[in-house]
Amino acid sequence: MTSSEYCGAADVAIEVEALTKRYDTVTAVDEVAFAVRQGEIFGFLGPNGAGKTTTINMLIGLARPSSGRITISGIDCSKNPKAAQHLMGVVPDESNLYPELTGFENLCFCGALYGMRRRQREQRARELLAMFGLDRAAGRSFGSYSKGMKRKCTIAAGIIHSPQILFLDEPTSGIDVASARQIRRLIRELNADGTTVFLTTHYIEEAERLCGRVAFIVEGRIVALDGLDALMRDTEGREIVQFEVVDRPRLSALQDEVRSAFGEFRCSFDKAGLRVESRDRSPLRIGPLVRYLEEQGLEVLEARRLRPSLEEVFVRIAGIEPERMADDAGAESPTGGSS
Amino acid sequence: MKALIALVSILVKDMQAYYLKPPNISWGLIFPLAWTGMFFVRSGEGLESVPALLPGVMAVSVLFGTTSMLAVTVTFEKKGRSFERLLLAPISLELLMFAKTLGAIVFGVANAFVPVAIAALITDLSGVRWGLLFTAVVLIAVSSTFLGLFIAVAVKEVFEAQTFSNFFRFPMLFLCGLFFPIAQLPVWLRPVSYALPLTYGADVLHNAVRGAGEMPVVLNIAVLVAFCALLFSVSLRSIRRKWIV
């Protein structure tokens, strides 16, 4: 089955077949295939170094595929990556506008690169600056913006020409909670207006909130690709409880003892504390575990039942522990309550 | 039309962001002034020697102005990743790089006419063939800018761009016949001179200012055009190979 058969060839925005990228002896992307429907938010997830950015770079024309085929809105871009660039908006993982130009000048310049006439690009730039809450800072140099403002301005630059397809590479990475929430809301609004969004992120929770379908990429290969509901179906009936204790270093030191004493649980230790999940779908009885922890001198502050998340699905499919994803993401979190 | 809008915007942005910044304007004035003064004092002759010095000073101003600016700005944008934004624009790489180099060409041409303006105040330039002079300046500016592009593509860091530029600039300066006639160079060095674009540019300048060139003007112009085409195409090939990996 080709990738477009997943969603029907007529409404395919991006189609990728057997896409491979090799650097000397390293295969960064290995026979990747997927299709993105027009008007959907497609999540492309994986830990750092999994091949997300290499894939996105091949899609937008900043990297040449070693083999495989890329079709954007019916245009074959495998040989000529420039052919469909007028349809795309790109927001890279780092804000890359010109620090010496103002926010307004940067947006106008980006509009001009797509051939927008002066009046048209100035009007659109003003609209976007207002939409992103940057109108007051429009006349300030981009270099003086905060990280969140830079991110928003970079997204605005990516959509100045009203692209059909928007590529967002880690859009909320390294910014504060309020800005991240605002960016997620804007992504939803853009999508509601018909823009197809290709989102790469290592924040699984972000993908869970935004995306209709997701692909997981690990070590250059897609290990799962499906709708969010289908992926989450597997987690139905599973129970997870997160424990927060006073003395976390001591809890970490007791990892092996806890695991051997409660073999019926799948235990994982992270920065937040201890997370426990039943190995089968039987109800989780946490009383003995709480007593055990307290006998070990650990005061349990909170035991919180968690809703199974996409992260659980990813961990199960990819075999990657949450710690690794957290480490990849650094100390940042995209969360901050539901949005 | 869309391509033209993009081209003009890149030119205007570069002018605004780099070339029209006060330090660059002052550099563009002081550098030619310093070279003019230095050679004038060194010649120990009167004002009648100015036309003889003018081609050399003009060529030096263009060469240093264009290579320095372009090599640094492109390397700087590449390092800051803002160059990626240009690569994502729906215009051909040829047009993009031409737009990117146009600012440096204009800057180089403007630099060349600073010593001309000074010379016009102190000596008689009525014998100058202005059309030929302008053609020579433009061709030197284009070839030097494309040399700057070639350097920018070859290096990763801004400081490397400066160092690598000098590797080409200083030998070129002393071997191109501007200050010493090529005939006075050792025989084994002369082929090197004839392999440098500035040799042909300098010859046209001498022809335009003093009516005394070593080679036919048409040959000089043809060789300069060939150098421009070669440097631009080699640079584009390198960009495709190194920056769109």
Order of helices and strands of chain A: EEEHEEEHHHEHEHEEHEHHEEHEHH
Low-confidence stretches of chain A: 324-339
CA-based gyration radius of chain A? 22 Å
Q: Figure out the total of helices of chain B.
A: 10
The helix-strand sequence of chain B is HHHHHHHHHH
Ends apart, CA distance between termini of chain B: 30 Å
**Biggest interface:** A-B, 30 and 26 residues
Q: How many H/I helices of chain A?
A: 12
Number of domains of chain B: 1
Task: Using brief descriptors, characterize the structure shown.
heterodimer, A: alpha/beta, six-stranded mixed beta sheet, 12 helices, 34% helix, globular, disordered C terminus, B: 245 residues, mainly alpha, 10 helices, 79% helix
Describe this structure in words.
The complex is a heterodimer of chains A (339) and B (245). By secondary structure, chain A is α/β, with parallel strands linked by helices. A 6-stranded mixed sheet of chain A has the order 6-7-8-3-9-10, sandwiched between helices. In chain A, strands 2-1-4-5 form a 4-stranded antiparallel sheet, covered by helices on one side. Chain B is globular and about 55 Å long. The model of chain B has no long low-confidence stretch (mean pLDDT 87). Chain B has one domain. The longest helix of chain B has 30 residues. Chain B is mostly helical.
